[in-house]
Amino acid sequence: MASGGLIEREVGFFHALREAGVSISLAEVLDATRALGVIDLLDRESLRAAYAATTLKRPAHRPAFDTLFDLWFPPVTGEPAGSSALVEPDSEGEPGEGLENAGRPDLDALRDALRRLLLDGDEQALRRFARETVRDLGRADTAPGRQAWFSYRVLRGLSPATLTASLLDAMLAGQQRGGLAEKVARQTVTDRIRAFQEMVESEVRRRLAEDRGPEQLGKTAVQPLAEQVDFLRASRDDMAELRRQVFPLARRLATRLTARRRLGRSGRLDFRRTVRASLATGGVPLVTHHRPHKPHKPELTVLCDVSGSVAGFAHFTLTLAYALSEQFTKVRAFAFIDTCDEVSRFFTPGGDVATALARMSAEANLVWYDGHSDYGHSIREFAASYPDAVGPRTSLLILGDARNNYRATEVAVLRSLVAKARHAYWLNPEPQAYWGSGDSATAAYAEAIEMVEVRNAVQLEAFVQRLLPS
Length: 470
What we know:
This protein has about 475 residues and is α/β, with parallel strands linked by helices.
């Protein structure tokens, strides 16, 4: 292990996890420290498991945890022992310094060795090979006297993906193609190649951490957690992960709401019962009596822009609204692009969310004129066609970036809807710094309704806790 005692490394590791967005309390830090007394500290995987068991609460945080753990608790330090026998001596420079140099590594021999290791499936041998190939191929001089490590140099030189066909031939060994055996073999090859690529990337991170320090590298080595990714910049994989988090998020919010209701379950003071009970104690009201508390469950109406620029945000929020439906008397959802349609019928209890979203996109009447966002016309149609959608018990949510293509805003209609509702909020997935720029009508709408920046799932969770009744 690199310089620094175990406790110092532990403190630095937990600090890096917090900076990456993983929530770790002081009690969990103490639990992790106590766990060190019951494991073999020389067993690195036991240490990893102990830290993960005591600090992680969400499976989605595990990749970030593993990446940072490998930086702070590397499997080896310095150069791997021994020397690759597959690399020819380089008399004109460092090993692997430019693949065109004389005396360069024997790439054909390295590829043959990689093929054998992938075929055998020996993880430890494959990891040792990854360390050696990073040493021999991954180093490059970025400036006089300075060097850096790059995984792409290793993966470009070895091209492990091009070995798939020969590995399949070897694994099947004359078996019939196209059946279950080939599917299993292909999946096995894909998994082993992906594992080798991750080993190379991990080794590159280890060497960079030794050169620069894990504190500096930890800030860039970890991808933002799914709940921290801006909705408007989220990839398809990010949105898929966010949708997987919807129901766990809804359960957490519902649990907090239930606890809040229990704390406030006493209603108003029942004066008569309190005075009557005080007669037994000489007129001193030692015990107060209260009327039964009747927590109300409001209605929720969601009006969301599902045009291309904000569709991911709207879909995620609609899913969350229906996951929280038990906390509301009624949930109604309306979608719009340049006109409005109710889409509640697509979200049935227990139904598949992906199917509901697909049906909404295909069947809902959301386009009136040209298919470009028209908030003014949509708000006017919503108020005229669904007058019962907003009432004194309704929490009204409007979702969208308020980019109205320079069309009429119908702020007066929106103001009348807000006046009818119990609560009304506009959730905007754009950074607040962009509000009012270009065709954004946020300034006009913000005069009629409270506009809240909700760029990611963390901000959305904070807002929903504010929305839920106490």
